[in-house]
Records
---
Amino acid sequence: MADFTQQDLSGSTFQQVDLTGARFEHVDLSGARMEGVAFNGAVLHGVDLIDVDIKADIERLTINGVDVGPLITAELDRRHPGRVLMRPTDADGFRTAWDTVEELWTGTVDTARALDPALLHESVDGEWSFIETLRHLAFATDAWVRRALLGDPSPWHPLDLPWDQMPDTPGVPRDRSVRPTLDEALALRQDRMATVRAYVDGLTDEDLDRKTEPVEGPGWPPPVSFPVREPLLIVLNEEWEHRLYAERDLATLTP
């Protein structure tokens, strides 16, 4: 394995690099930008975390002896009261959660319609544009509902947009160059939202712990059996978080 000692690697780019088990001593990461990075099991001692912005899935993160995960969850739930609805435990809870998703996204789409259509293709701080966000949520529904839950091995639409770090996969579209109109993106989005609505409307409490049949063939997710609740919780999380990102960026784009 390579060793780097007393070398200036400032400004370097590391993409799809495996640093599992790597050791960093007296390393300056000031101003570094990390996206799609896994820190599972990492140990950081003697570090300075000053003016650091972290957006992450956080579980069992201990800082100075304190598990901060529950503290962060409680504060986010306080700021966004509807957030707790995205963690339902029964079928009625999933229906209520999807009611909330539909209502909140209606308001967000109304905000987007008030903007110059060209702005809906604009990226803010390197994040997805509003149209790309809609496309990604269509992909999430195709992956976790139409494929994982409904068993369609190839549910993809040409406008589907996987997350950036997903390896290119045969048959799964990823065209960042297309520029569909808002109405075109919404037509796909509304069709996929209707799929989720139909699924949760027919959901029973007994269904939630039932295991899905693994779906073979290239695509996402891999051919694994999931409790039905798991893909649904993933979709709810995607819907909730990406709407917050969209609202943040639309506020920046609003003249």
---
Amino acid sequence: MNTLRAVSLLGATLTMGLATGAFALYAHTIMPGLKETDDRTFVAAFQSIDRAIINPWFMSSAFIGALLLTLAAVLTNLGRDPLPWVAAALVLYLVAVVTTLAVNVPLNDAIKAAGDPDRIGDLAAVRERFHASRWAAWNLVRTLASAGAFVCLTWALVVYGRTS
């Protein structure tokens, strides 16, 4: 059981770091870079990036992986010293997941539903309806929540190491 606790904690921490890095990359690079582009480039690039990120590698190794492995770490650490830290990580990451599903994904889906940028008559309107500043603000929420979860899991590893 000790090995399972260690593996789940390590896996949760690694995948949480990957998820946090993806969210942070949008916050400090992708969205600021796209902000400086013309409407056609913004719409086309965002559509392309969003299609590319929905892939088995990202979903399993980061987004869903972090959720499942953190839940596994909670279950394997019931009654153990790392539990409060792992539980806090799970709550924080749930904030990131709910934010993603409630805000970011619907905005992503709307910009993709606008269709091929070469066939859109009013690209400025599509970009405006996307609400990039709203998307970015909520992305910051999920970035901070997942970063907090990563810190909690990292500390849970320290606590696990001290008590094992």
---
Amino acid sequence: MMKTELLPQESPRAEAFSLWMTSPMPMVTLVKTINVSRLLKMSKNRGIRFTALMCWCIGRAASKIEEFYLLPEDGKLYRFDKMGINVIVANKQGGISSCDIPFSADLEQFNRDYLTLTEKAAQECKSSFLEDCMIIGTSAMIQTELDCIVNQYTEKFSNPMVMWGKYRKGFFKTVLPVSFQFHHVQMDGGHAAKFLEQLQMEIQYCGKG
């Protein structure tokens, strides 16, 4: 049982569902500047791409918050028992492809899947999707430093989305402004703020223990 329809009125999101499910603009964006010094060091020491480590930490943080397993879709509310991370891949034709990567708490396994699936998307120029997973979207626009990103809202994609630009190196630390967009039926601002705090914690302790 990977995806289960819930009765909204019997779920913890009953009030939010009644308020926001039919809203023309139900998405909310929070922005937090995160210290990624630890992640950059780990990327260099272990030879793992910075973006792959970011995606893994996002999955780690999200998997600890119950609301991330919920998804409002087509006027209904669903719960998933597995999670995946979506990345946007530059393909060999000069375009982009969408690639869903199953989340694993095991970094080595997640990195293997990340490398295999993104390379396949780049070479075949085809998008791949995991229908049985709750997907968290990501978009890394590393061509320039960005202060904030506000994504467009579309009724075809109500999943949470984490976006960032190029990290900023300083004398003592490297920081990265991160924009997090979510559907108000799925969670409240407090849950989103908790996720961003948890993301910072996962990055800070990445690879330890």
---
Amino acid sequence: MTAIEGATVLVTGGGRGIGKMLVEELYGRGAGKVYATARDPRTVTHPGAVPLALEVTDPASVTAAAEQAQDVTILINNAGASVRASYLGSPMEEVRRDVETNFYGPLLVTRAFVPIIERNGGGHILNVHSALSWLADGTPYGASKAALWSQTNSLRLELQPRGIAVTGLHMVYVDTDMTAGLDAPKADPRDVAVAALDGIEAGAHEVLADDTTRWVKSQLSADLEALYPQLNK
């Protein structure tokens, strides 16, 4: 279990959406300091947060952020992107963008902050995944989240002996700017943030933040037709 009260936390993508709610909930639980990162730190509006410029795909930007946040004990890799690219019809640079942001980005940040967290006596990392880690939606976004899920599982094993716990957070579409153009049921970002922090405090390996996500994971051992009924046609 990891205590949030008094902890120093860094939230990537902390200026909006789930990240913004995470910052608010962290302070509500007594976090001592919260670094909220964004490409443009002026978008961070919480009065108590420490705004920090960060582009997760840029190694120099990650290094600079780590140099400014040497007291972190909890890292939340929340920043992500979805360009709604098509495997067959979109330029390859659009396909790569999802993977660069959602897989390599968290890895760059984690590699920079693991030594810091370890030096500060250990702590916690939470990676934000998706129900689409397990359910293909026809875009590279899901593939990037599936790859991040695998990364998280490996890091959990590697970091446990070093005093760093790792939690993976999965949820369906959330009502944020990223999903504004989607006509689908969406979770409340505050509910997701609450579930995520509950998971950190409980020491959970995974947090499945809603019923749909729990159902999707439960079907992974079933035949493919359970997740993709269109295959029955």
